[in-house]
Amino acid sequence: MEEIATIVSTRKRREINQEEMDNLLCFCEEFLWIDWFDKLIIKQK
Q1: How much is the pTM?
Q2: Cβ distance 42 to 10 under 8 Å?
Q3: Cα(44)–Cα(30) distance, rounded to whole angstroms?
């Protein structure tokens, strides 16, 4: 989970393209972290 947090923290400084977003969502979904990821995105907005 720390790895994902680091990736998102690094990438939020620039625009995430669709492919990267899809890959990240697939990775999160694989570990059932969609809920956690959704909360993180909401917090960033």
Answers
A1: 0.28
A2: no
A3: 22
